[in-house]
Structure formats: C-alpha cells, structure tokens
Amino acid sequence: MKRLPKYTPAEVRNDPYGFTYKEMSEVIGENEAKALYEELYKQLPRKKNLSMLVKNICKSSDTEKYVYELKDNKYIETVFIKRRDGGTVCVSTQVGCPVGCIFCESGRNGFVRNLTSSEIVQQIILLRRKVNRIVFMGMGEPLFNYDNLIKAIHILRDRYGLNFPTDGITISTVGPVDQLKKLREEHLKIQLTISLHAATQSARNRIIPHMRIYAIEDVVKQALSYSERHNRKIVFAYLLLPGINDRPSDVRQLAKWFRGKKVMINVLQYNPTSNSRIKAPQKREIVAFKHQLEQAGLEVTM
Ligand code: SF4
Fold it and tell me: Which residues form the Radical SAM core domain (predicted)?
C-alpha cells in the first residue's frame, strides 16, 4: 500500500484544504480531523484556513466570474453558471496553460505553474454557492496537473467533507494519452469530455498545436477505452472552424470512430474576441454540420 507523505500538524493547519481526511487523521488524530473537516466544509470559510482570496466578482444574469488572488500574487478565474437549483462551477487547474489552443485567451501567455490541490478545492469553497456540478475546464489543462487534480477530487468526495458525488464531476481535457491511461485505472467513475476539435492530425495540430506529440487516433482510442472500462458516455467537444474541420471527410471519420459507441459529439460555436485570429462560423453552418453528423448515425448536441 502507498505510504502517506510525512506532514507536521503545522503544515496541516497552515493549508488545511490541501489534505485528505485520511492524511489529516494520520497527523492530528481522527477526532481533530473530523472537527477540522466540519469547520472547513460545513461552515462559512474562515480566513485563517485560506491561502487565496476573492479579488473580484463579475456578475451577469446567468454567470458569476470569480477572480482569485493566490499567495504568490498570481490570478486565476472560476466561473459559476447558475441553474434552476444551484449551479455548475468551471474550475481552473493551472495558472496559464501550456497547450496553446488557437481559440483560447487563457493559454495565450503560456504556462506559469500548477495549482495545488488546496487551491483547486478552495475555488469551490469560496463561491459559497450550491454547486451541483464541478467541471475541470477553467484555466489550464487538468490532466497536466494530474496528481493535484486527483487528490482534489478525493478531498471533494470525502464523506466527512463536501461529500460531492463522483457522478457530478467532469474532467474536460485535450486528452494527453499517458494521463488518460492512468485515469482509466483510477477507481473514479468521473465524467470525461475530450476536446477533440478535429478529425485529422493536421487539423488538430493547427487547432491545438502543443498536442501534436499525440496521435489523434491514440487520443480517441484511449478515451473510448475509458468509456468501456467505466461504462460512461464520453463527450467529444468539437469547436467548428469553417474551412479547417468541417469537411465531409471529417464527418465520415467521426462516424467511423464513434458510430455505435457510447459517445456524444458536442458541436461548439466559436466566439471570437478582439484578438481573434480565426473566423467564426455562421449559425447555419453549425446547424448543417450537426445535421450531417446525425445523418451519419451519431448522437450530437450543440
Ligand atoms: S487547454 Fe483549455 S485553457 Fe489550455 S489553451 Fe486549450 S482551451 Fe485554453
């Protein structure tokens, strides 16, 4: 069995959100750990337990964007999307991002550092909102911060803490193959969304340049393997970029991979920003592409 790292009580008390209940109990004893978990997860957040603070909240009718300041004066964003009863939170896992998707502002300035498990967990705690769904899809590529992400998920699921249902947790990833293999072997039946965005290697290299080290077929194969092992429907996100990934041959390739599999394709609309280098599709182009996929026998949403 894997040995727990050695911690001191001071480490636990300085950054308690970074500890699983089991780790905490090993260091400060079960009764103390239960009391501290109660304070951390069932009461209003206390300043002495936090290592980050809410710097700004930008509210609209259906979303709230939280800007958090970390201890080293770096900033991250967390988005809360309101639903009828509670909401979905989009959680960041890194400061910056090393992936460099051509459509993304977060990755434009490159990678700065991984978030700690504690910083991942605190993004949810500090919202002070009823959260029904947690999606790891904010700033950063979650699977490039694998250990801290998995530990944060264990902390969030702990029955002495938030007791968050595994079913309500989604990892949205560009699909680094080695990490997908590792995730397949975890005893965690979480939902998986793969940002595929292409049906050929050359289109994917253009859209997600830093993922060119992985063959697109391997990403697909590994994601389908996760689906089979955990009996989960996988969502493949597909940002439609006219002239890049919307040819009839792309539809045929997607059908070849996914027809008859537990897969849903989520066709996404690109929303250009002021710095955009690519053209946004017209609504009718998205509808037509969705229709072609459906005609090819695939389950599609948009
Ligand atoms: S992986 Fe996510 S955060 Fe990183 S560049 Fe791509 S879209 Fe942006």
Answer: 83-302
- Separation of 110 CA from ligand 1 center, angstroms? 10
| Ligand 1 binding site (Cβ under 6 Å of any ligand atom) | 97, 99-101, 104, 106-107, 139-141, 174
Q: Do domains 53-173 and 199-302 have the same CATH topology?
A: yes
User: What is the tens place of the pLDDT at every residue in 8-35?
Assistant: 889 999 999 999 999 999 999 999 999 9
Alpha carbon of 102 to ligand 1 centroid (Å):
9
Question: How high is the mean pLDDT of the chain?
Answer: 94
CB 210 within 8 A of CB 99: yes
- Spacing, Cα 77 to ligand 1 middle (Å): 13
Q: Where do the structural domains in the chain lie, given as residue ranges? A: 1-32, 53-173, 199-302
Q: pLDDT tens digit string along 169-202?
A: 999 999 999 999 999 999 998 999 999 999 999 9
**Which residue in 225, 220, 223, 301 sits closest to 264, CA to CA?**
301
Is domain 53-173 in CATH 1.10.150.110, yes or no? no
Q: How far apart are CA 256 and CA 217, in angstroms?
A: 11
CATH 3.20.20.70 fits 199-302, yes or no: yes
Q: Look up the ipTM and state it.
A: 0.99
**How far is it, in rounded angstroms, from Cα 260 to Cα 207?**
27
Least Cα distance to 220 among 238, 207, 239, 206 occurs for: 238
Strand partners, 192: 171
Please state the atom number of ligand 1 nearest to the C-alpha of residue 208. Answer: 6
Which H/E stretch holds residue 206?
Answer: helix 201-207
CA 173–ligand 1 middle distance (angstroms): 9
84 pLDDT exceeds 90? no
